[in-house]
Specification:
alpha/beta; 337 residues; five-stranded antiparallel beta sheet
């Protein structure tokens, strides 16, 4: 029985060097990295990692699976993400803030969706919001398009990430029209009066139709809709994440299982204090209990997949690796150098 721990945003952007990790106490994480069989990998978002793990094309046709995980039925239609975003002028650039900075209410989502749906209906576009923070767009035709997940664009200029390909111009126009439509929307005026960022555009990406994906895991734990949807589309159990690593060890059952710990805040906005606090909770609630209980759990290994925007690390740790004393643990900042 093998447990794969997927931790997005575990590593800070490389441009900051090692300073974000200084003084951050995480002995269990340091042990997993020091004594496990470790490999440094390239940068990846949760979305891109899951696409690769499930054998999906490089074009990331992920929207129908996320919709399924959000309780929708993608059927045979083509779906895209149409995430609510705020685009802010910064010099000569437009910088994107994603839904984590917006906290759209259900009433607001319904109002925005109604306006967008009425405007784009003539083009065969329908938009739904099974969750106020996650919107989906059904397209009459499957676009020939290259797009990027919203999580990879958050906090950055949108220019290098705008939709491209044969149909890129059409979808760039959709983004512009959504901006104009939402700019003076009454709900945005209310948000601005309260000092909140307006929802002034959408970010389309991840177009595709649902297919049966590969099934690399016997079960998937966690609440992320994409992970849940990929699991159920492949006929695999999607289970609610327990409260801690201790509870998880009691519940694990199967040959290979994926545990998605998507609780760390995005590093894109530079909130180092919140990120360091989340790493400490990850250490206390998950990594330390899993490491302490590994020998008696029946697990053959824990494989940590730590992701970051510029680099990541995968480390496979087995019970006998605790005896590799010659592999001395080092401070966490050493593993980010």
């Amino acid at each position: 029985m093998n447990c794969h721990l997927l931790v997005p945003n575990l590593y800070w952007p490389a441009a900051a060097g090692t300073e974000p990790y200084r003084g951050l106490e995480a002995p269990a994480l340091e042990t997993l990295l020091a004594r496990g069989h470790r490999l440094r990998t390239g940068g990846a978002s949760l979305e891109r990692w899951l696409a690769a793990a499930y054998g999906l094309p490089a074009g990331l046709p992920l929207a129908p699976y996320a919709l399924r995980g959000d309780g929708g039925d993608p059927g045979d239609d083509c779906w895209m993400h149409a995430d609510p975003v705020h685009l802010r002028v910064h010099g000569d650039r437009l910088v994107l803030a994603d839904a984590t900075r917006l906290q759209v209410t259900p009433d607001e989502a319904r109002a925005f969706i109604a306006a967008l749906g009425a405007h784009f209906a003539a083009e065969g576009i329908a938009i739904i919001a099974p969750d106020p923070q996650r919107w989906y767009l059904r397209s009459a035709d499957e676009p020939r398009l290259s797009t990027n997940p919203t999580a990879e664009v958050a906090g950055r200029s949108i220019e290098p990430f705008l939709p491209s390909g044969d149909d890129g111009a059409h979808w760039r126009r959709v983004i512009n029209e959504a901006q104009m439509l939402l700019h003076d929307h009454p709900r945005n005026q209310e948000r601005e009066a309260r000092g909140e960022l307006p929802v002034n555009s959408i970010w389309p990406w991840g177009a595709g139709r649902a297919r049966r994906p590969a099934t690399p895991y016997d079960a998937v734990w966690g609440g992320h809709p994409l992970a849940t949807g990929l699991a159920t589309a492949g006929g695999v159990a999607a289970r609610r994440l327990p409260a801690s690593g201790t509870e998880l060890l009691k519940a694990l059952n199967g040959r290979s299982q994926l545990v998605v710990l998507s609780s760390l805040p995005a590093t894109a906005y530079g909130d180092l204090t919140a990120w360091r606090a989340a790493v400490s909770l990850l250490e206390r609630d998950w990594l330390a209990p899993l490491l302490a209980g590994l020998a008696d759990s029946g697990l053959n290994s824990i494989t940590l997949h730590g992701l970051g925007p510029d680099f990541g690390q995968v480390s496979e740790y087995r019970p006998r690796d605790r005896l590799r004393f010659w592999r001395r643990t080092r401070p966490l900042h050493a593993y980010a150098a």
